[in-house]
Design goal:
283 residues; TIM Barrel; 36% helix
């Protein structure tokens, strides 16, 4: 018996069907043109980006090791929506799985403008808005509603760390069909007497991620839930799915262990087979 397909855009007229729940976040997938060697593992979908209406130039970037993880130093870079479609639409069409484009605009009007441009690429299956940590709920709703007027694609919102429970209902009410819980939290390290700040990645985040995921799942919102942050093992993926997620996004773990995609897909398939067999015995 084959594993069931997963709809990560429930209620949307187009839908967003994936073959397995293991997705790659932009930190692992980049813009989708140079995916890491996944050693036989095929993700259910990739999220490509970051993209914005106007694009932003490079800043400081890099990785800093900390106990239990790494800090990804912020570059502030994003590709303009126009340039991203021109440069990567061909790669997205050849990806072999659905491609969701991540937008990082701060203003509602800019998000809608970028969404309209990205929606024009036939290879794009959905749009993810990674909203700024301090975004006002009213701006979140305004941006989602404006994007729906100019783009027919399913909309996900990648919620800020620590605000997932507060913003989830507002995002779904404004049109989001998927919620990603959550963006990497900020962290700091002391280097040569100076404080360095970046996005924190590491398996120790998982317990806090699970707490946020459960809080959102308990709201029983009519949307897909996607867990992101601290997921480094197949066991953690299965826990996230058991806690209410329909899929997970992988980021830092893929940098050092690309084979983890295959491992997680296999673990999920084994779980689905076991569930199907248990159901068959009770019928």
């Amino acid at each position: 018996m084959s594993a069931p397909m997963i709809d990560l855009a429930p209620g949307h007229k187009i839908g967003l069907i994936v073959e397995n729940p293991v997705l790659l976040a932009p930190a692992a997938a980049g813009f989708g043109d140079r995916l890491p060697r996944l050693e036989g593992g095929a993700p259910g979908a990739i999220v490509a980006g970051p993209v914005s209406a106007a694009g932003h130039g490079y800043g400081r970037s890099g990785l800093v090791e900390v106990e239990g993880g790494v800090l990804a130093l912020p570059s502030g870079f994003s590709r303009s929506a126009r340039r991203a479609v021109e440069r990567y639409a061909g790669a997205w069409a050849r990806a072999g799985c659905p491609v969701v484009v991540q937008l990082v605009d701060e203003a509602a009007a800019d998000f809608a403008k970028a969404a309209a441009r990205v929606a024009g690429a036939q290879a794009v299956a959905g749009i993810e808005w990674s909203v700024p940590a301090g975004l006002a709920p009213s701006t979140l709703a305004e941006g989602l509603r404006a994007a729906q007027r100019v783009a027919d694609l399913p909309l996900w919102v990648k919620l800020p760390w620590g605000r997932a429970g507060d913003l989830a209902e507002r995002a779904v009410a404004a049109g989001a069909v998927g919620l990603v819980v959550a963006q990497p939290p900020a962290g700091s390290a002391l280097r040569a007497g100076a404080v360095t700040t970046g996005a924190l990645h590491g398996p120790l985040l998982f317990a806090t991620l699970l707490d946020q995921l459960v809080a959102v799942a308990q709201q029983s919102l009519p949307c897909a839930l996607i867990a992101s942050g601290g997921i480094f093992t197949a066991g953690q993926m299965l826990q996230a799915l058991a806690a209410g997620a329909q899929a997970v996004q992988l980021d830092a773990v893929v940098w050092s262990e690309p084979a983890v995609v295959r491992t997680m897909v296999a673990a999920w398939q084994d779980g689905e087979k076991g569930t199907a067999q248990a159901h068959a015995r009770t019928e």
